[in-house]
Amino acid sequence: MKKLFGLMCAVLLITVLAACGNGESDSSNGDSSESASEGSGDAKVIKAGIGLNDDHPQYKGLLKFKEIVEKETDGAIKVETYHSGQLGDDRSMTEALQLGTQEVTIPSTAPLANFVPEFSVFDIPFLFPNEEVADKVLDGEVGQELLGKLEEQNLVGLAYWENGFRDLTNSERAVASVEDFEGLKIRTMENDLHLDAFKALGANPTPMAFTELFTAMQQGTVDGQENPYATIYLQKFYEVQKHVSNTHHIYSPFVFLMSKSFYDGLSEDQQKIVKDAAVEAGKYERKLNREANEKYLEQLQEEGMEYTEITDEARQEMKDAVAPVIEEYKSKIGEETVDKVYKAIEEAK
Ligand code: TK8
């Protein structure tokens, strides 16, 4: 009887110790069964979520941010990374930052314009001639000024990353010029300028969160979408899209956002660390993204997509078709902001 009692106590003790765990938890990708904050003692935890998957340069940039922050703060700040819309879509994750229930997300400027309308300036079709000019303008005075406007929305813009030049895909027909857009049901980001620009091209646009896009294309709810080649390839859009054209109609920046309530709770040193980490990881992400966009058009064709080259004449036709929309949005965005950006572009060339 005594032996049995002793055995039961031993089993009970082992069970209790196992339940307490060793206090360690993998906060690396947020997939840990327990939240890292339980396992990390008094470390501050950044929950960082994006919509793209873990193959995309944006996620590799986020891992670089995590590496720098955890090293530079000696573990005082831990970063949990979530991809593929695990925490929501761009708009809902940005709202979560405003509420303080999430600490980092990295949306495109297009959905961000729903929070600070001036960001639509970067969604003016054919605005940036190339990535180098985009970098100079975004990292320069006017780009940084716009980041400052986020604070009134309880958001802190720490850096610009790169989504890239957007290209059209669809399942219906080859698109070589403006008339080929006629009637195509194109998904756009949730941004009025994008919507009106595609209407001006003759398409039938539908604003939609990125997290719903693949299913919408699979079910034929939309005929097509527009994104950089890296996204088209890495999100496997070639499985549900037949045609791709190098429209290059918009250069889309990402904005590395942090919740202002979280940022304000950091020490000055920690604020500098997260800011510098976002900038450094952004430069790394831009490099990876450009390498990716270079090689993925060829791989899209290897996966069976039919590529159509947009000639200079056809692109000029597209510019002419959207010119009235750009004129209309100058006042909506703010003439001063638009003029500053155009001036900065001329200086950066
Ligand atoms: C991913 C999106 C995506 C964007 C879009 O969350 O919505 O098409 O280009 O990169 O931000």
UniProtKB/TrEMBL annotation:
Which segments does the entry list as coiled coil? 274-317
Record localization: Cell envelope
PROSITE patterns for the chain: PROKAR_LIPOPROTEIN
Entry's Gene Ontology cellular component terms: outer membrane-bounded periplasmic space
Residues annotated as signal peptide: 1-18
What InterPro entries does UniProt report for this protein, alphabetically?
A: DctP_fam, TRAP_DctP, TRAP_DctP_sf
Q: Please provide the record's keywords in A-Z order.
A: Coiled coil, Signal, Transport
Q: Where are the transmembrane segments?
A: none
Q: Which Gene Ontology BP terms does the record give?
A: transmembrane transport
Where mainly located? other
Similarity comment text for this entry: Belongs to the bacterial solute-binding protein 7 family.
* Record protein name field: ABC transporter substrate-binding protein
What species is this protein from? Halobacillus litoralis
> What lineage is this protein's organism placed in?
Bacteria, Bacillati, Bacillota, Bacilli, Bacillales
